[in-house]
# Entry
Amino acid sequence: MNQPPPTPTRPNPGPVPSTATTAVTGKLPATFVGDLGGRVAVVSTSSGKVVRTLFGSQPPGSPGYGVGITPDRSTVYFSLEGPEGCNQRGIFRVPSGGGRPVRVVADDNAGGLIRFSADGSRMAYTSLPCPDTGEHGDIVVREADGTLVRRWKTPSYDSRLSVGQVSLSPDGRSVAVPTFHILDAVGVRVLDVARTDAFDDGRLVKTTDPGCTLVAADFQPRSGHLAAFEGCRPGGGLTGSPSRYRLVHLDPASGDVRSRAFSFVNTGGDLHVPTMDFDAGGRHLLYTVTSGTPTDGTGTWRSSDGGRPVRVHDDRTMKNGHSSESTALLASRRTSSPAESMNSTFARSSRVVSPSRRASSR
# Structure
């Protein structure tokens, strides 16, 4: 359904959403926020069905939205992507129960997930250049009211390096960014918000598992350590398509693997894991698997305590860039197919989660 455009920028965007986190119960969050390739929606975690549409819809095939939800699950942030985003600049917030969006950032658009610290006081995202110059977007940290805290320029296009989906640590002091050379994962660059002056100065974390590289990462809310999906190849090689993906927990300094959880086979060699997002207690994980052509392995998945994954959304229900009953997940690396682009995020009881999807579960 068509909805009115967001309200214009206000000198004072109004009160900042509460930073009080929801009590951690250990239960699976009932909903997450997703971009369905044309609308921002609250989606049921158990059924994958849309609970309510917060903003949209755009015509089929339109660019999607960057999305995120505050830790107390009260407020959803979103930003329009693609060329249209340059005509509708800004990052907006809207009550998760519905309401009129308010612009909180006037001169920036977010691509992929908008991530929040555990207390909801800070957010991080990848900005989208307007107009599109072919360069990668900056990594940006702001206060929840939109005040700029830090901005890092990412490697130039000529370097053939690109970045994946950002993650913000629970204390809001570190940002983790998966880095790729052409299509091969290099590692996760960890940036200190207070001390890291340039992107390349950030600490590069690599897994110590032979033949494996880190393709997606998120900070574990309970410990603050990194959890990641590693793509592993037979024979110990570090280039080419992984034959298997595995969820691991890492020592943040050395990259040593502390523990391993589930894994799955890269059927057909064309699967990617672009985004992952834990709930506030760190028990429940929402992640996406994408491919040039949707298969029985693609979609939005959840796992509890590292156990057997359950698919929440099946990519094969996507038609013309829209999903019939689920979330579109947005990541920062692009693919050519509209059906590939999905963004979703857990509203961790403090918030809402392959190279191109997004979902937020906080």
